[in-house]
Amino acid sequence: MRLSRRITGIIQGGSDGWDVYYRANRLSDEGLDITHLTIGEHDIGTDRSILDAMHEATLAGHTGYSAFNGKIGLRERVAQRVSERTGLPTTPDNVLVVPGGQAGLFATHHAACDEGDTALYIDPYYATYPGTIRSVGARPLAIPARPDRMFQPDPADIAPHAAGASSLLINSPNNPTGVNYSRDTLMGIARLCQDHGLWLISDEVYDTQLWHGQHVSPRTLPGMEAQTLVIGSLSKSHAMTGSRIGWVVGPEEAIEHMGNLATHTTYGVAGFVQEAACFALDRGPDFEAMIAAPFRRRRDLVLRLLEAQNTVRPIPADGAMYVMLDIRATGLSGEDFANRLLDTHHVAVMPGESFGQAAAGHVRVALTVDDERLAQAVGKLVALAQELTA
Q1: Which of 78, 167, 187, 261 is the Cys-Cys partner for 199 at CB 3.0 to 4.6 Å?
Q2: Which domains does the chain have, with CATH numbers?
Q3: How much is the pTM?
């Protein structure tokens, strides 16, 4: 039987960018001691108090159908959090609860794009972005952010592709680069979106992991509230990756229609997970800072380890749980270097090419193991790069 072109074309054949990750897992299964620095998974579990709240909500009967657009109590808490963090008044009618940030990406592109529309996104990008755009029937078009600009997008590079496009997807603090987009960058992007009538989709799941500068949500910029859709999640801020709980914030009309989409796709998020999310948000910013603290410490550790050499150059890591490293001096692609590092030193990192071509010749290091093991792994990475350069 024939499958639809839409579903068979999500990744368009070939690699989905996760080859090194899959191979590292197979080697672990075979008994090798692999240091996994690939995916953004916390090395702590979800806090016991949140799990207890989830368990209590289950026993209390929050196991049936829930409101498809999210429980009012959770939408109120998200609206309050967004209002407090951004200074822009936000109501529950501006909030849709979704099963994680990935579902938010799917919903927002459904809201912004018709079949065959062009949807822009910045390269380097999180690996699911182009496939998500294809899954809603739109045409993904990557706009490179250049290494010589430290991967800050240049609105002048976006402008030639904006005419006729429907949306632009950005992510700051950025995965994979760790770059925090500056206010000037975002102001330029906002003007471009206004000039061309683009929906701006802003993936802000790393907004609590910021080490340098100020996080600016483009929804707060002049004139942008009506054409910005913001994706948030508890995955990174509260170490709740497996709970699959997030939200979209946007204009009331868009949120209402995405609620209709939720009714016909996810049918809502489990009530006991939403109750646990309410409890988690009630823990406040100090709890979020505690979850983020190890990644800031490890980011500083990696940068210190790299100070004594100039073969491997770090991209300024302003935020998120990663450091992007420039290994072009070795003469290898990011993919070849990552495979060599895995084979010779049993350290798994993600090739820059997994996140688009703008990051070719780079590798991404996830700061997701304890400090000592991370330091050893970075030492092995540098040693291999120096060996190849020599």
Answers
A1: 167
A2: 5-45+286-389 (3.90.1150.10), 64-283 (3.40.640.10)
A3: 0.96
